[in-house]
Amino acid sequence: QAQQPVQDVEAIRASAAAFVRERLRPVGDSVVHADAGALDPRLRLAACSHPIKPFSPSGEVRATPRATIGVRCDAPAWSVYVPVTVESELQVLVTTRALPRNAAVTAQDVELQRRRVPGAASGYLASVDQLAGRHLRNAAAPGTALDVDLLSTDVLIRRGQRVTVIATAGSLEVRAQGEAVADATPDGRVRVLNLNSRRIVEGQVESRDSVRISL
């Protein structure tokens, strides 16, 4: 009796990796790499009589370092799930020396290198201009590729700080003294206690000591 043809496992892996690369668009001059993981060597699937079809179980391919891609056959009917590792090759800011937690990162602390990093390129910093108004969440060793998750936005106004409240209505502008009731980041919104009326108002952070509200 002739042995039943078996589906080529490498074709399944290649199909899953190609599916990821096709759906994750590179950012700028970055290159997306998708490498399919090994499948169980005991896997024996009947050869598919039609082209195999890769798919995403969640409905979309997310730019995470690891993805699971399904590959199915319509005749005979079977499906298998393939682990795929996703990386991006891109220009990224890399620390040139050890930096402590909460340090403000400057142009002197980084250099631009082409690196292969986990996941998508969109979260990584490629310009020193992106460092403005940010500091490190944790200490960073030399050679660390900087992404948005490693940095926090600086607090510009702190809770309890005295600020000038600038209220505008058309061409009319009124100023009053206030006290911030919460921390605020640059270009963020903050609630302020008006020290004259004792009312709490909310406005847009304008500078380190002023908040603007519209009447």
Task: Please summarize what this structure is.
The chain is mainly beta. The strands form three sheets. Strands 1, 2, 3, 4 and 5 form a five-stranded antiparallel sheet that branches. Strands 8-9-10-11-12 form a five-stranded mixed beta barrel. A two-stranded antiparallel sheet has the order 6-7.
Can you give keywords for this protein?
5-stranded mixed beta barrel, mainly beta, 5-stranded antiparallel beta sheet, single chain
- Counting DSSP H or I runs of 4 or more residues, the number of helices is 1
Q: Count the strands?
A: 12
Query: What level of helicity do the residues show?
Result: under 10%
The helix-strand sequence is HEEEEEEEEEEEE
Decide which structural class fits the backbone.
Answer: mainly beta
Radius of gyration: 27 Å
What's the average pLDDT? 92
Unreliable segments (pLDDT under 50, ≥5 consecutive)? Answer: none
Amino- and carboxy-terminal Cα gap: 87 Å
> Which descriptor suits the 3D outline?
elongated
- The portion of residues forming beta strands comes to 35-45%
Characterize the largest beta sheet: strand count, sense, and whether it forms a barrel.
Answer: 5 strands, antiparallel
Would you mind describing this structure in some detail?
The longest helix is centred in the first third of the chain and has 15 residues, at 9-23. The chain contains one helix and twelve strands, in the order αββββββββββββ. Helices cover 7% and strands 40% of the residues. Strands 1, 2, 3, 4 and 5 form a five-stranded antiparallel sheet that branches. Strands 8-9-10-11-12 form a five-stranded mixed beta barrel. Strands 6-7 form a two-stranded antiparallel sheet.
